């Protein structure tokens, strides 16, 4: 048989071949996930294929990306959009998913299969490969990451890196030093980026160019003496180069009648060599002074008499001096810390869905609001001594570095409207906290060396100020957003403001760091850290507008009479009880109906204070306060706190902002803030049009548009009222999306899964546990 030959194809196509563009089409570009780094910031470890948990009961909304640990922050980088996120308040120094290392409270690693969990400390070993990482933050956030698809060794390394770098062994290992060294100085030691010591580095910038005095030079103190009329007080420079006391500033204010030589001799008898410091002068001549205790009991009476005589001579009426021993009058810093730990449990761990009564009862058991009330009450009593009895007041505390900071600041906020403006409030914090030697490094526990020295006194002070702001919304230039952002800035280790225990410590570490990095300081003596008061380093001008209170009644306000724009000074006749933000008063007493808070107001229902409800024999201070409340308040004068239990509230924006269950969509204070802001902007538009009609400029060298930029929410035109934005919630401008408070992890209650009571307890104790 012959072999069969294959047939040749006979079909011929007359159509052109199909043109495919596979080869010519561009390949989809895959963006490399990289962390955005600041000057001096380096990546120390990272892991890919990490899942950030958005909800606790489902993984459908989780984000996939890379988890990076740097010497500044934890950064989660993803291309995925955050579900349900309608608004994000952005910080220039931090990304959407970033957490500063100094903001980390605890690092908890979990292994699902072995049912093990461990709180990691610095330089610790991890005997299992983690499948989960939970970060507890000092600002009440909880963030959770899963490593199901990540390499086990890489996951372990990044967890250990986060634990290690969040607990630096030395202040110079805090990121601020590297940041300043790289940003403001080049290898030759010359400044770069056009930074000026009075501006970008340690400058006293502020909101929209408002300058804040830092009180690191004698001229700042001189101006404050002149502003308050303290003619019998002078600036003293005996502590230049910190030769007398390491914790005092180089310049302070003392009575004119006390010579420098006498002060040098006295200093050795005071705790920490902290001589008495002038804080403020009342227009009637009374002075507010703070001092530490006298160690030498033999010299105590003699020195007390000498100091009191000098303060008496500085008073124009030669009035007596009243001394307040705060160690005996107020809770200790340990009490405040214990209350804060319990507050964290209530606001983060315990179920929020429980009944209103049980939640408020739990809040009462923390004693936090009780302590807030105690500090406000004691400050009000001292206001009576200064304003009502016209006597000078000495605040005495063992070391003069904790309770004195709180009380001296609150007294000045109540008495002086200057300190209720943004620039004035910032100068107050700078004067009474930063320069007075409040231990921010220890009390904030930046190095996490010991929980025993940690205490949130600065947050307690901000809470007290918020209570006053809530009661007198038109008396403050700033908003609760400003106070909340200021509390968050405690945990950003870029600014020197909240990084050290005293100015001397900052100077010492600056010189040591400069020598180690061969940085030439020249005549500056210290590295020029940026100041927290330069808000442009964190926020845009528009975002800073959220700091401005549209209800604020300043020293003067514009009005229109017969078509002419005039300026008048507000007096008591211009105010009503609605502006004060207080209930109506009949003969200075509250009615019974006003003593009962609304059910869902989150107002603490403490035991009724029968001493205030009955008719007891009034003390002079009680009579002074009652008479003050019986009259309309001058918001540019003295304000006093309302101290009934129904008036002391939970600062929800600070403590409950990360809890999804606590959010009120299109509700809360922000909705009223939006309406008032738009109204204030409309008024500004009308005033600008009147000025244009009269041919007068809006401001010297300014434009109508620049005047209107003070409000975050603005009117589009005068004919239409803009609707309320859909993204407004009671947590605005913050978002709780992705913060895992309450509910459960894998079906198990969070408090039980992580052994409840262990959370927020001593990191040292938990770090030493063995599995």
TrEMBL record:
Superkingdom to which the source organism belongs: Eukaryota
CDD domains for this protein: PTP-MTMR10 (cd14593)
Positions of the Myotubularin phosphatase domain: 215-655
Pfam families to which the protein is assigned, alphabetical: 3-PAP (PF12578), Myotub-related (PF06602)
Family according to the record: Belongs to the protein-tyrosine phosphatase family. Non-receptor class myotubularin subfamily.
Protein name: Myotubularin-related protein 10-like
Organism of derivation: Huso huso (Beluga)
């Amino acid at each position: 048989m012959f072999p069969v030959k294959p047939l040749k194809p006979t079909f011929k196509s007359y159509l052109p071949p199909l043109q495919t563009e596979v080869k010519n089409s561009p390949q989809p570009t895959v963006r490399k996930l990289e962390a955005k780094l600041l000057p001096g910031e380096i990546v120390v470890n990272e892991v890919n294929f990490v899942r950030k948990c958005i909800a606790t009961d489902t993984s459908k909304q989780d984000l996939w990306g890379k988890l990076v640990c740097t010497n500044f922050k934890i950064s989660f980088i993803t291309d995925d959009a955050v579900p349900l996120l309608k608004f994000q308040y952005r910080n220039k120094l931090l990304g959407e998913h970033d957490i500063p290392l100094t903001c980390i409270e605890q690092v908890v690693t979990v292994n699902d299969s072995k049912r093990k969990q461990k709180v990691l400390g610095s330089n610790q070993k991890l005997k299992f490969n983690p499948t989960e990482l939970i970060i507890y933050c000092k600002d009440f956030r909880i963030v959770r990451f899963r490593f199901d698809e990540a390499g086990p060794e890489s996951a372990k390394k990044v967890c250990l890196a986060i634990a290690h770098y969040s607990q630096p062994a030395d202040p110079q290992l805090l990121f601020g030093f590297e940041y300043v060294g790289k940003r403001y100085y080049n290898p030759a030691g010359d400044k770069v980026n056009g930074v000026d010591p009075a501006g970008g580095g340690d400058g006293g910038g502020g909101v929209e160019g408002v300058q804040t005095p830092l009180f690191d030079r004698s001229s700042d103190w001189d101006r404050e003496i002149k502003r308050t009329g303290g003619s019998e007080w002078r600036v003293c420079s005996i502590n230049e180069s910190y030769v007398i006391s390491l914790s005092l500033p180089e310049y302070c204010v003392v009575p004119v009648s006390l010579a420098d030589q006498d002060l040098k001799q006295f200093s050795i008898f005071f705790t920490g060599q902290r001589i008495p410091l002038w804080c403020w002068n009342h227009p009637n001549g009374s002075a507010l002074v703070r001092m530490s205790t006298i160690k030498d009991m033999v010299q105590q009476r003699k020195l007390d008499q000498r100091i009191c005589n000098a303060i008496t001579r500085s008073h124009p009426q030669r009035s007596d001096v009243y001394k307040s021993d705060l160690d005996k009058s107020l809770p200790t810093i340990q009490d405040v810390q214990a209350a804060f730990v319990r507050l964290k449990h209530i606001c983060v761990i315990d179920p929020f869905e429980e009944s209103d009564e049980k939640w408020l009862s739990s809040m009462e058991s923390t004693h936090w609001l009780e302590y807030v009330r105690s500090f406000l009450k004691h400050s009000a009593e001292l206001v009576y001594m200064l304003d009502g009895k016209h006597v000078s007041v000495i605040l005495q505390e063992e070391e003069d570095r904790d309770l004195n900071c709180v009380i001296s600041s609150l007294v000045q906020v109540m008495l002086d409207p200057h300190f209720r403006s943004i620039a004035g409030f910032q100068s107050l914090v700078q004067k009474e906290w930063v320069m007075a030697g409040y231990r921010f490094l220890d009390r904030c526990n930046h190095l996490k060396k010991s929980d025993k020295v940690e205490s949130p006194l600065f947050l307690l002070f901000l809470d007290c100020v918020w209570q006053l702001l809530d009661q007198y919304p038109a008396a403050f230039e700033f908003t609760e957003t400003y106070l909340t952002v200021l509390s968050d800035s405690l945990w950003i280790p870029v600014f020197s403001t909240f990084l050290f225990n005293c100015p001397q410590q900052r100077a010492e570490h600056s010189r040591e760091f400069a020598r180690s990095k061969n940085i030439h300081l020249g005549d500056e003596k210290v590295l020029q850290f940026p100041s927290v008061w330069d808000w442009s380093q964190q926020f845009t001008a528009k975002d800073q507008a959220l700091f401005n209170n549209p209800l604020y009644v300043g020293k003067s306000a514009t009005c229109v009479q017969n078509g002419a724009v005039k300026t008048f000074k507000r007096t008591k006749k211009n105010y009503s009880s609605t502006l004060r933000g207080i209930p109506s008063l009949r003969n200075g007493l509250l009615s019974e109906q006003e003593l009962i808070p609304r059910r869902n107001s989150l107002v603490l229902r403490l035991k009724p204070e029968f001493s205030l409800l009955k008719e007891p024999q009034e003390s002079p201070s009680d009579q002074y306060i009652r008479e003050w409340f019986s009259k309309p308040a001058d918001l540019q004068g003295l304000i006093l706190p309302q101290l009934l239990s129904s008036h002391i509230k939970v600062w929800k924006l600070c403590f409950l902002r990360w809890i999804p269950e606590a959010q009120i969509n299109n509700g809360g204070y922000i909705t009223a803030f939006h309406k008032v802001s738009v109204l204030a902007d409309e008024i500004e538009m009308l005033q600008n049009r009147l000025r244009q009609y009269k041919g007068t400029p809006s401001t010297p060298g300014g434009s109508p548009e620049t005047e209107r930029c003070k409000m975050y929410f603005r009117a589009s035109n005068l004919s239409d009222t803009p609707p309320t934005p859909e993204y407004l919630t009671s947590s605005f401008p913050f978002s709780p999306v992705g913060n895992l408070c309450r509910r459960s992890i894998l079906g198990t209650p969070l408090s039980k899964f992580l052994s409840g009571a262990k959370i927020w307890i001593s990191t040292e104790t938990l770090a030493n546990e063995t599995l």
